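Q: For a teaching session next week I want to show students how multiple molecules come together into a single three-dimensional assembly. I've collected the sequence lines for a complex. Could you give me the predicted C-alpha cells for the whole thing so I can convert them for display?
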Amino acid sequence: MTETSELTMLQSINEALHGEMARDERVVLLGEDIGHVGGVFRATEGLFEKFGETRVVDTPLAEGAIVGSAVGLAMAGLVPVAEIQFLGFSYQAMHQLAGQVARLRYRSQGRFEPAITIRAPFGGGVRTPELHSDSLEGQLANIPGLKVVAPATAADAKGLLAASIRDPDPVIFLEPLRGYRGIRGDVPDGDHVVPLGSARLARTGDDLVIVAWSYQVELACKVADALTAEGLSIAVLDLRSLVPLDLEAISAVVDRCGRAVVVEEAAQTGGFAGEVVATIVEECFWSLEAPVVRVSGFDVPYPVGMLEDTYVPDEKRIAAAVRQTLASA
Amino acid sequence: MARPTETQLRDILVDMVEARAQGGRLWNLQRQGQVGTVAPVDGHEAVVAATAHALDPLHDWIFPQYREPLALQRFGPEVLEQYMLYNVGHPDGSRLPPSVRVAPIAISLATQIPHAVGLAWGMTLQNEPGVVTVFFGDGSSSEGDFHEAANLAGVLRAPAILLCVNNQWAISTPLHQQTAAKTLADRATGYGIPGVRIDGNDAAEVYDAVDQARQRALHGDGPTLIEAVVYRLGAHTTADDPTRYIPAEELEAAQRDDPITRLATHLASKGLWDDELRTTTEAEALARIDKAFERAITQPLAPDAVFDHCFTSDTPRMARQRNALLEATTATGAAESGVSQ
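A: Of course. Below is the structure for the complete assembly, covering every listed component.
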C-alpha cells in the first residue's frame, strides 16, 4: 500500500517541485517572486532555501523574458520550470509561448528539445483584480506543439506536475486559484507520476456524463452526488489534460451514457468545451440521445468582483444543464 | 586590443566575397521561382563574417536573425547546406547537426534574443565555457524582447554578445523613425552593461569589438551590446522594392563604402588579394551553392513529414490525422496509377 498524506493542492504542487528538483539536478525554476518569498501563493516555498539561488531564480518582471529565456535554458540542456504569476499575464509572453516554445522542436526538426514546463494559476472565484482570473486554456490548446494540463485533485496536481516536468515536450500546467487551498485530498507520498493524456472517471454513472477539467470537476462531482440522491446516475469525466486529449475515454463514457454536458469557465465562443462537443459529435453521434450542452462563462471579458458569481459556472447552472439534457427526447 | 592578423582578414574577406556571390545566385533562384523569399546579406558581410571569425565555433554559439547564414561559413559547411534546404522549403532547413552551434533563423524579430540570453545563462549553470552571440537589427531594437532580454542578461551577467546590426532601415522605416536615441549603443546604459558603437564595414574593428566582448563574457563580466553601423546595400528581401524609399544618392554613397571593396583594397595593398583570387573565390562559392541547391531539391520528404517533430510522439488526435493523410495519399497514388480501389 502506498502511504498517503492529506494535502491541499498547493502543498501537493510544492511537494512535486521538491521531488523533481531533488530527482533531477537539471531542473531550474524561474519566475517572479518565486525565490525568497516562495511565490505569491507560496507554491515554491522552501525551494530557494533548499536548492539555492542558481536553481530557484527570481527574475525581473518580464513574462516574455521568463518564457523566452526558458527556451535558451532548454537548449543548454536544462529542464526549466517557469512560473507565470497569473495566467492572464501570459498574454505578455504569448509571442514566446505560441511562436517559440511550442515550435522549437518542430522548427529544428528535433534538434532542440523544449523540455519546458510553465506553471500558472488561473480561474476565478476569489475576487482578484483584472486579468488575474482568466481561463485561457482554449487559446492555449489551439497552439500546436504545446501540451495543456489542468489537474482537478490534490493527488493529480502532484502526479501530473511530475509528469509534465519529466515530459520532453513543452507543457503549460494550469493550477486553479480556487483549488490551491479549496481542494484537498490524499496524495501519495514519495514519487507519484500520472501520465499525461489519460482522463479520469471521477464519478461513474449511466444516465449522463459531465465532462470537465480543473476546478469544474469539483463542481461537477458535487452536482453528480446531489443528483444521485434523487436516483439519477451521473458520470463525471475529468479530462486532466486537454492536449493530449483522451479521445477513447470521452467516447467510451459518452457511448455508455448517451447524454453529455461539458463545463468550462472560459468564454464560450472558441472555447475548449466546443472542441469537446465536436469530438463527441464526431465520435459518438449515433449514441447520442440528446443535444450536448455547454456550460461556460459568457462571451465577455472576465468581469469584476460583483459580477463574478454571475459569470462563473456554478453548481446551479451545471445542474440545470444536466436536467435540460436529461429532459430532451 | 586584438586586431586580426592579415591572414585572418584574408580569410574573412574570402567568406565575405563568397557570401556576396552566393547571395546573387540565390536572388536569381528566387526570381526563377526555385526558392522562397530571401533576405540578402549585402552590406552586412563584414560584420557577420568578422564576428564568426572572432568566435570559437567549438564553444561559442551564434543566433542569426535571417540575413546572416551565407556569411557564417566559419561555423561549418552545413550552414550553407541547411540554408538551401530552408530556402527550398524543406522541413530540415532549420535542423543543423548538434556539432554546429548555430540556432535556427528567427523570422519573428527579436524573439531570438531572450533565447540567446537563456542559453548563455544555461551554459554558466552547466559550467560550459563559451559565449552566445545574437544578431538583430535596428528595427528589432524597438521590440520588447530586446529590452527584456538585455535587461535580464545584465542582471544575470550572462555571457552574451548582443550584436545590433544597424543597417539604417527596417524594411522602409528609417532609423530616425525607429528611435529618438542618438545611438542604439546608448541603450546599454539603461541595462547596466557596456555598449559600444563600431563601424560595421570595417572587418578589423568588428573582429576587435567582438573579441573584447567575448573576453569580458568569458571572464564572468557579463554581456556587451555592440551596435555595428552598416548600410543595407540591397532590398530588405526579394519581396521588397527599395527604390520606393531609399534616396539614390544615399545608396550611392553607401556603395562607395562597400565593406568588401574596403577590405579588398587594404589586402591588395599588402599583396594578399587580387582580381584573380576574387574570381576563383567566387567560382568556388557558386559551385558550392549550386551543389547545395541540387542536394536540397532532391532531399527526400516523407508523405507524412508534416507531422514529424511537433511532439516527441503524436497525440491521439494527430495520430488519426496522420493515418488519414497517409490513407488519402495512398488512395490518390493508386488512383493516379490506374489501380482500382
